[in-house]
Amino acid sequence: MPRRSSNPKRWRSRGSANRNALTFNMAPMIDVVFLLLIFFALVTRFASAENVAMELPNPEDSRARGDQPKDRVVINCRLANPGDLGTGVLYSAGPNPPEPLPALSARLAAARQATGELKVVIRADRRLPFSAVRAVMRVVAENKIERMNLVAHVGDRE
């Protein structure tokens, strides 16, 4: 009868050590990465092919909608004299000349009546005190306009 060795490693059958070890198969992950690379390479080529350089016509009597919807009003708040912070605040609706807050309120009320739902964008110079911006916000709220965005002018830092 053959004698068994005292070494316990010899008692194990071949491959039993490999059964307990965890392995991670990288082949499927590499396949997925290559598929994603191919997909994004093709998609970017198709997207750039859509933007062909050309001269577009400029019709005189166009019925197309403009870039800015009519249901949006931009209110600009800026200093009356940018060199002097104590000169006061100018309020204007879009490119219109500056006007006092009651006139601005009347303009907002008329725009809300004409369009139904109105969106107001308030642009303010960062040097303005918040009380000046709050006054415009109050005018917007008094006209029962619920959609409002507030944009702060970043400009050059002093």
Strand order within the widest beta sheet? 2-1-3-4
Strand residue content: 15-25%
Please mark out the parts with pLDDT under 50 across 5 or more consecutive residues, or reply none: none
**Which range best describes the helical content: under 10%, 10-25%, 25-40%, 40-55%, 55-70% or over 70%?**
25-40%
- The CATH topology of the largest domain is given as Nucleotidyltransferase, domain 5
* Shape label: elongated
Largest sheet report: 4 strands, mixed
In whole angstroms, how far apart are the ends?
97 Å
Number of domains: 2
What is the CATH top level name of the largest domain? Alpha Beta
What is the residue-mean pLDDT, rounded to a whole number?
76
Give me the secondary-structure category: alpha/beta
Identify the CATH architecture of the largest domain.
2-Layer Sandwich
User: What's the helix-strand series?
Assistant: HHEEHEHE
Number of helices: 4
Count the beta strands: 4
Radius of gyration, CA atoms, in whole angstroms? 35 Å
Descriptive terms for the model:
158 residues, alpha/beta, Nucleotidyltransferase, domain 5, 2 domains, four-stranded mixed β-sheet, 4 helices, elongated
Brief write-up:
With 158 residues, the chain is of the alpha/beta class.
How are the secondary structure elements laid out?
Blueprint: H1 16-20, H2 27-50, E1 72-79, E2 89-93, H3 101-115, E3 119-125, H4 130-142, E4 147-153
Parallel strand pairs: 1-3, 3-4
Antiparallel strand pairs: 1-2
